[in-house]
Amino acid sequence: MKQTLKLFALSLLGSLRDLLPIVLVITFFQLFVLQQVPDGVFEIFIGLMFVVLGLTFFIFGLEQGLFPIGESMAHAFARKGSVFWLSLFAFSLGFGTTVAEPALIAIAAEAAKVAAEGSHIAHTAEAMESYANGLRYTVAASVGCAILLGVIRILMNWSIQYLIMAGYVIVVIVTAFAPAEIIGIAYDSGGVTTSTITVPLVTALGIGLASSIKGRNPMLDGFGLIAFASLLPIIFVLVYGIVV
Questions:
Q1: pTM above 0.85, yes or no
Q2: Do 193 and 225 form a contact (C-beta atoms < 8 A)?
Q3: 206 pLDDT higher than 90
């Protein structure tokens, strides 16, 4: 218990240190450039304390929970020696952590409105909801495929730079054929998929898997899965725009 409290205190100090530059920048511009004190200083201070606590709990939870879970599951799958179950887990992890992402839900809803205004879909609530859901599931499936591809890359020891370069070549080619309304949404979808849950779990999975395989370096082979999770959604959404 003492060790846990000590680790939490260190994490709290780390959160304060990380947020201090932001606070100093905002304070400087507020007092010396705008030369005004914002309304509700006490409420802002309380909110800042909640931000510090929230960041602390989040980082502490990652270190104590998500990272060990991801690494231990990767070790377990490697010992099991089943590529099928490891691949299924990788796809399910990417799909499951993305489909309910709030940022993705918001982007999909806005995309449906844009598509309706551009007369690509009917102006009914049902049609827009169907379009938004299709977009969400497309992005979620793309992240699942991205994590699966990243796991296969680690297993097969493929060079990540060539896969990334080939992916962006495909992005440029598909962009030329995609509707103008979907291009910006597709490029944004690569960012909204890297959520606060997906990134730690996927990173831990990659590191744990690379650590479990003889001849793999966790620093060289354990990272890079998030790059696929940012790249493949762009391609999938562009194709979705062309088809739908």
A1: no
A2: no
A3: no
